[in-house]
Amino acid sequence: MTDLSVDIAGLHFKNPVLAASGTFGYGLEFAELIDLNQLGGFCTKGLSIEPLEGNPPPRIVETHGGMLNSIGLQNIGVRAFVEQKLPHLRRYQTHVIANVFGFSPDEYVDVIRVLNDGDGVAAYELNISCPNVKKGGMEIGNDPNEAARLTEAVKRVARRPVIVKLSPHAQSIAEVARAVEAAGADALSVMNTILGMSVDIYARRPRLGTVMGGLSGPAIKPIAVRMVFEAAQAVSIPVIGIGGIVTAEDALEFIIAGASAIQVGTANYADPGVTIKIIDGLKAYCRQQNIERIRSLIGTIRC
Ligand SMILES: Cc1cc2nc3c(=O)[nH]c(=O)nc-3n(C[C@H](O)[C@H](O)[C@H](O)COP(=O)(O)O)c2cc1C
User: Fold this and answer.
1) Quick one: which atom of ligand 1 is closest to the CA of 60?
2) pTM
3) What does each C-alpha distance from 6 to 13, 15, 271 come to in angstroms?
4) Ligand 1 neighbourhood includes 22 CB (under 6 angstroms)
5) 126: CA distance to ligand 1 center in Å?
6) Per-residue model confidence as pLDDT tens digits over 238-278
7) Which end of the chain has the lower number of beta carbons within 10 A, N or C?
């Protein structure tokens, strides 16, 4: 029997495969399509203190090897999540990670306070890296001092582990990683989408309503693997790898480069069962390579 379990931020995950925020709804939308109990965990859509409608359409454009989105953090608000979604999610044997967003550090803290009272949330993932909002997202994630200040403020009130999700736009991912680790972060998620743009050549207009949006999917994978490698070298807290993962082989690249777990985002749209296939693929690889525990693979890259 292969042991796929990993430990991150004091939590035991049955396997290192999680679904990424914004591509898995509030989890319940996928409960009829896959067995949620098989997942290591999943991240909810980003939750803000008040409900948000998001950006004007069009908000999604397909690109070669990926997609651009400008959803803009549409969500039902943290109170509705705690009242309407959490009671149903508690039935599942998987870790629910609440992805948190605010337009100011105070708003992040307000969201965390509401979640603290919600039974069934395993950890918080701070989105300080969304390219689709003007304030609060990338502005914080790109500046090591701002990122550290926010992490500290959240850690003061959080009753659960805090995972900070980093931006690929930071000048030095290692510097931001070290700053949030020093501020008390329990783990890192690397990375969010990369700002991109697409043009309709007949209308001569941008394809997205907001002109620019976040690029995700296989096209960004090599950048994400590089950033996970750099972040994992810089800190001693666990790093969760995200960006363009579709297969078990993709997931293994991240794990060997230094990720303690991985998240699958855009691939869920093409195949809602992709996370389960990746778990099966990891088992098959470990069996074939005579690896008893997948955790023994983390960061074993030889450069
Ligand atoms: C439609 C869409 C919505 C997203 N919403 C969020 C969000 O609310 N919070 C967040 O931290 N990341 C969000 N993300 C980023 C993903 O969680 C992930 O970091 C990114 O898409 C890269 O992974 P992938 O290539 O596997 O999709 C979103 C991504 C997409 C495609």
Assistant:
1) 1
2) 0.97
3) 5, 6, 25
4) yes
5) 13
6) 999 999 999 999 999 999 999 999 999 999 999 999 999 99
7) C
